[in-house]
Design goal:
Blueprint: H1 19-31, H2 37-67, H3 72-101, H4 111-127, H5 133-151, E1 154-157, E2 160-163, H6 164-169, H7 176-214, H8 220-227, H9 234-263, H10 286-298, H11 302-313, E3 317-318, E4 328-334, E5 339-345, H12 350-372, H13 383-396, H14 408-441, H15 447-460, H16 472-477, H17 483-487, H18 493-511, H19 513-524, H20 532-538, H21 547-562
Parallel strand pairs: 3-5
Antiparallel strand pairs: 1-2, 4-5
Helix pairs in contact: 1-3, 2-3, 3-4, 3-5, 5-7, 7-8, 9-14, 9-21, 10-11, 12-13, 13-18, 13-19, 14-15, 14-18, 14-21, 18-19, 18-21, 19-20
Length: about 575
């Protein structure tokens, strides 16, 4: 599972150690005269170029840290960015936004090209509070501390110290006794660090609440809806929660009964609620995983495989588990290089195979944007759009899982499991969203109350069919191993919204594969200045999470699973 991590994969065109030099570059933008619409457009391009250079360097430093949280030099560079550069950028971003918004030519900019940028900048000007800068720096420090704790987490397994992701992968083991042992080991390990994680989350909740109050909001939830420039309301989210509980959970319960029958167990326990019907992991070495995924992508569209092979050859993939590596997986853009980087810390398992396919959906989306629209600026990065193409790639490759599973029944089990995962994406992230609504509208809650609320919500949604007796405390504390709550608050419901779009893409693919793939590529390369609904339309699907849409796609998903005989 070892992998060369020494290859340089990003460009440092700006020296972030030279703080004075960086300030001089930013000051030159603030001092530049803007005497026409043309001047303003030139100024915006100059600002974008500098921002992209800074972003690529900081992104590279962050990924370096995630790849090796135990290297003192790498950590020092990353912390310098967070503690020195980030506050500087926050301060000057506010001044740059103000200069731009107060220009008499600001509202003369073309609406189609600059409309979204105008709305985002005006929102940022309204939200900015200088007193929030040190709070945001502290927030990042706590996020870093979480990565260090989880990156160094190991579990004793059969006489050896194994990374935490390895133990998680054992939940896919066909032997139920192994699954139960893995679950108990994970929970015992998590319990040891839970006080530290609770302390971090307690402080994060208070910090975030104070940021919101400083900006004139009653709570952090309301503040984040404005920060994220969401194109839907808080009530829309609550309606979505209810629609899924009404239409998806009953279908999930029926499906869980099928899995329970296939497992031949009397009670569906927490360690039964994962992939476990395939006889063995789909691969044992990272190179085998890469070979197979490259072939699956190529059998879908030559461009997909070409991009994957390019990334593989240029050190833009870091897959597999090792001690000191941060948990989770993600894809990030390198705007100056015009590249994307995929990071994953997973042991061999069905989930890790799907996770790579998922991240390659992001990567292909990134490369299509680079080739058609140029580097995506931050204000265009709406998660509801990004996750459509990651989930969508999973759906497009569903019929190619036979690349890793040679026996017919294993192929069917893998396809059912991927579609079961689609179900989990409809309710799991959504229940996590509801959990965050509660956390941040009740900022003075205790750690015990937080665990109890998480258990309550889990039982309403994904654990509805599971016999949780005797494991209430373990389930209640299991939120702490989800990095989103610590590092990307209120980034969860987007997975559920976009999965509805991805299921529509699967429906289209079943009817006309070539057309569905072309729609995927068209939407992934579309102009992101448009609304989310317009981008979804270019992908051949609807941005719709109303009750009729939830009901229809739930019925479709259940039927597709039933049709796999």
């Amino acid at each position: 599972m070892t992998q060369d991590t020494s290859q340089n994969y990003y460009k440092e065109l700006v020296d972030l150690k030279d703080v004075a030099g960086l300030e001089t570059q930013i000051r030159s933008l603030l001092d530049a005269p803007i005497e026409s619409v043309s001047d303003l457009e030139t100024w915006l391009n100059d600002e974008k170029d500098l921002t992209m250079q800074i972003t690529e360097a900081m992104t590279g430093h962050q990924v370096d840290f995630y790849r090796n949280t135990e290297d003192a030099i790498i950590k020092s560079t990353y912390l310098h960015d967070q503690q020195v550069i980030q506050p500087l950028l926050m301060k000057y971003e506010a001044e740059l936004n103000k200069k731009c918004c107060e220009s008499p030519y600001f509202h003369q900019l073309d609406e189609n090209r600059y409309g979204l940028m105008r709305r985002v900048r005006e929102s940022k000007v309204k939200l900015f509070r200088e007193e929030n800068i040190p709070l945001m720096v502290k927030e990042q420090e706590l996020s870093t501390k979480y990565s260090e704790i989880m990156g160094g987490l190991t579990v004793e397994w059969e006489g050896e110290e194994k990374p935490f992701p390895f133990i998680e992968s054992q939940l896919d083991h066909p032997d139920r006794a192994v699954r139960e042992k893995a679950y108990r080991s994970m929970m015992a390990t998590l319990r040891q660090i839970k006080p530290d994680l609770d302390a971090i989350m307690d402080e994060l909740v208070q910090l975030r609440h104070q940021m919101a109050v400083n900006a004139g909001f009653e709570n952090y939830r309301d503040y984040m809806f404005v920060v994220k420039n969401r194109e839907y309301s808080i009530q829309d989210c609550y309606d979505f929660h209810e629609n899924v509980e009404k239409h998806i959970i009953p279908a999930w319960n029926r499906l869980a009964a099928v899995f329970k029958s296939k497992l031949g167990v009397d009670a569906y326990r927490p360690w039964d609620n994962t992939a476990k019907l395939m006889k063995k992991p789909p691969y044992s070495e990272v190179s085998t995983l890469m070979d197979g995924v490259a072939e699956m992508l190529g059998n879908t569209d030559p461009y997909f495989a070409e991009r994957f092979n390019y990334m593989r050859e240029n050190g833009l993939l870091d897959l597999g588990d090792r001690k000191g590596k941060s948990p989770g997986g993600f894809c990030t853009s390198l705007p100056v290089s015009g590249d994307t980087f995929v990071f994953a810390n997973f042991s061999p398992s069905f989930f890790s195979l799907i996770a790579l396919i998922h991240e390659m959906g992001h990567a292909v989306n990134g490369y299509l944007q680079f080739s058609e629209q140029g580097a995506l600026e931050e204000y265009k990065l709406r998660a509801e759009v990004a996750e459509l193409y990651s989930h969508g790639m999973e759906m497009l490759l569903l019929d190619k899982l036979d690349r890793f599973y040679t026996e017919e029944e294993d192929v069917k089990s893998a396809q059912r499991e991927e579609l079961r995962r689609a179900f989990t994406m409809l309710y799991g992230p959504l229940s996590g969203d509801l959990f965050q609504h509660w956390m941040y509208t009740n900022p003075n809650h205790t750690a015990k109350e937080r665990d109890e609320k998480f258990f309550e919500i889990s039982k309403r949604y994904g654990l509805n069919p599971v016999d949780t007796s005797g494991f209430e405390e373990e389930i209640g504390m299991s939120w702490a191993k989800t990095l989103h709550y610590f590092q990307v608050p209120f980034y969860l419901i987007e997975y559920s919204i976009s999965m509805l779009g991805a299921l529509q893409l699967l429906e289209n693919y079943q009817n006309n594969p070539e057309q569905a793939i072309e729609f995927f590529k068209k939407g992934a390369s579309a102009d992101y200045n448009q609304s989310i609904a317009a981008i979804y339309k270019e992908t051949g699907v609807s941005f719709d999470f109303s009750e009729p849409a939830v009901k229809r796609m739930g019925e479709f998903l259940e039927k597709v699973i039933q049709d796999i005989h």
